[in-house]
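Researcher: Here's my situation. A collaborator sent me these components and asked whether they could plausibly form a single complex. I don't have experimental data yet, so a predicted model of the whole assembly would be a useful starting point for our discussion.
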Amino acid sequence: MDKVIQTSRLTKRFGDFIAANEITLEVFQGEIFGFLGANGAGKTTAMRMLCGLSKPTSGTATIAGFDIYKQTELIKRNIGYMSQKFSLYDDLTVLENIYFFGGIYGLSNKQLKEKSTELIERLGLKRESSKLVSSLPLGWKQKLSFSVSVLHEPRIVFLDEPTGGVDPVTRRQFWDLIYDAANKGVTIFVTTHYMDEAEYCNRISIMVDGRVEALDSPTNLKKQFNAKSMEEVFYQLARGAKRGD
Amino acid sequence: MRTLRFLLQKEFRQIFRNRTILAIILVVPAVQLMILPLAADYEVKNINITIVDLDHSPYSQKLISTITSSGYFRLTGYNRSYKDGYKLIENDKADLILEIPASFETNLVRDNENKVFIAVNAINGVKANLGGAYLGSIIGRFNNDIRLDLVHAPRFSPRPTIEVVASNWFNPWMSYDLFMVPGILAVLVTMIGGFLTALNIVKEKEVGTIEQINVTPIRKHHFILGKLIPFWVLGNVVFTIGLLISWLIYDIVPVGSLGVLYFFVGIYLLAVLGLGLLVSTYCETQQQAMFIMFFFMMIFILMGGLFTSTDSMPDWAKMVTKANPVTYLIEVMRMVILKGSHLRDVTKHLAVVFLFAIVLNGWAIINYKKTS
Amino acid sequence: MKQFITFLKKEFAHVLRDKKTLLILFGMPIVQILIFGFALTNEVTNARILIVDQAQDDISQQIIAKISASRYFEIENIISDASQIDRAFQQGIIKMTIVFPANFSSNLAHENKGQIQLITDASDPNTANTLANYASNIIQDYQRETNTLISQPFEIRPEVRMLYNPQLKAVHNFVPGVMALVLMLVCVMMTAVSIVREKEMGTMEVLLVSPFKPILVMIAKAVPYLLLSLINMVTILLLSVFVLQLPVNGNILLLFGESTLFIITCLTVGIFISVQTSSQQAAMLISLMGMMLPTILFSGFMFPIENMPMPLQIFSNIVPAKWFYIIVKSIMIKGVGFSGIWKETLILAGITVFLLAVSLKTFKIRLS
């Protein structure tokens, strides 16, 4: 299977502080890869490096085959991203946001028309398509945000804590969208601190104090740590953590 | 190119939906142009004078009435002593004291040395200068008049005199508005162009949408152009509104070519927007951006020759004005609007402003990193 | 009380952490003093002028020499072709042209009257007037000097004394104004934006739910800026006295007392604005347009209030900076004591109390 993300000892320092310490991992095409860790463990830092938003201090990596130091613009063309803070423009309508981001990624007018209709139907936003995004409830914003991030059918999509603050039903719907995308061949790289979401992933890694302390499928991890749930696994690993809440 | 089109669509949509910005574009020019010239009137009228007449003679009375009927002064006091007059100055009820000594008429008639004493509240330098000058010339004229009375024909032999004739060009009614309005137009364009650009980009930073842009394949220069173009257009719109208001309210019609004006303003805007851009690359919050922009704007505007003349500045200050883009705009505005200067007269200004545009925008582009 | 101190500490931390803003906060008064103190002046000196000498004789040469020696003028060029005058003005460099016509000397000798023409660029009417005056004076001086053999009979000679500011330095006018401006800017804008920021971020609600009285929240926000402003005041005073040689003729304690009052007035204005607005952008705009501009215009330090049309003059009375400017000028330059400024002090205090009361009332209404 294709390795879409390959990193070797990827590190990010801020002065004396090592935010991400020698991250080494591989992610395969079509996987749903969960990137877990407590707040402050270094998840966001690591992910920002993989997206080309932040330059690593040392180490190497290739994303979709492109070098993380020299080919960041090429990486960006092949990935999608959904940030923790809102990535859509509040003062533009649903349709305007879709057209904007689609157009930026190079979709033709025809493609934009087709995909936007498809997306709006899929999400049930027909009546809201001409409303400003600011008027949507949080859950819908998030679903819309995700759909926009995969509009251009990227090889990988990076999701930074995408389901913060929504009810369980909406979360479930969100993960339905993720599965859809994965089935179409998009690799999903998602960070979260909801342990139950960990169960939805093919493989996960757990970061503690800047290091990757575990990397395997949820089933294997539970066996390895003799735990009944991912929460327990996490608790065992993160208990001695110095950074975080 | 397509990317740019999408970017511009988004920017313009956002601008038109932002009520605050629309209010700024429409209200600020109107307010500035209407109130500033009304308030910023440096013309000196109504100088308050208090007179201490220790002579009480027909000639001293005549001098006093000449002064009060001149139209420049308002007689706010008639005191018995210099000390009393001084109190009026302390209370800001008088700007000048004229003391006519007790032997005024006697000395005058006998052609002895004859002095009058003038004390001027010089806190306000302009008023002091002009007040002193007016009073001096009134006394001089009074002097000439009575000289003709007192002198008997044979004693007076005609002497060659030089007559100075003054004429005022470009501003026949000596209206201060004509001086202020072009300057205010310059300030308007500068402030709106600079502030709006800086705040806009920093807002995206604060809210987080800039990260979303950074992660896309949008090229740096596209993003920056996408920000510059809408505000460049806005700057021109504001300038046009300003010109219209100047015409409607002050009857100011540019003597020179509108084409030259717009051409210069176009290039100038590039420089000012570049400054806004540059500032935005150094700030994380809108508060910071606003404060820093205000700081620079204030320096530029004060040192630009808007209120005080750049000629009178010390050498080091003159160098600063040379490094100040606003100086050039104010000069060009006044030159083209009031004197009808041509394109060839402002080529030097154009070149300098163009240089500013390149340096500021270049610096901003280098600074703006999609990857940090 | 302990809670208040904790809150106060947090506010100080916020303010001190923002290094860029702090830099500007302290740098601004220094820069302004430098500019106003050294660069800006209402004096007209080194004005660049053009001379058209068509006479080119002894007399015109002598007069030109006198003008050249004067510090008011800087001769840019001497030409003999009058048709160049238009162009010269259009090029924007010269402010005045002095023309000696071709038959100047012969007229003087035969008809006892010779004419010199002054053409001023009246775009700036005051400068034009002043320059014309200066030039006339120099020419009259020349006349007096060369005609000493035949002295003017019956001459009245005015003796002029400049009070308070013999060198016509602009500082005396500007420095009190700069003080008002800087204090106003910091206190109003920063306080308003700081409070509104909490509203925008939603953290204000958290505070309101706590047992902490809202009025204390606002006071805690204002205190750091009070201290910063006092430091700024001291800086400005030190600079004015030692660098600009501006005397402090009155009581320094009184000056500090009045300044503290003015600072509190400005802080109240900031609080008032913050209660009325809900977005940072709006708070900033209102502070700038609504407070800064009026302060510059109507405090009286840049533009004389008595020149303004009546409605504006009346309006200027509600601008706190106007009263503070009068107070500072009176204390620093005229050396007046409290008895001379009690009226203005009362007005400032009145404005403060009024604004505070309205703010509290509005705030309570919003809550309920």
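Model: Some features of this prediction you could bring to your collaborator: Chain A has nine helices and ten strands. Chain A has a mean pLDDT of 87.
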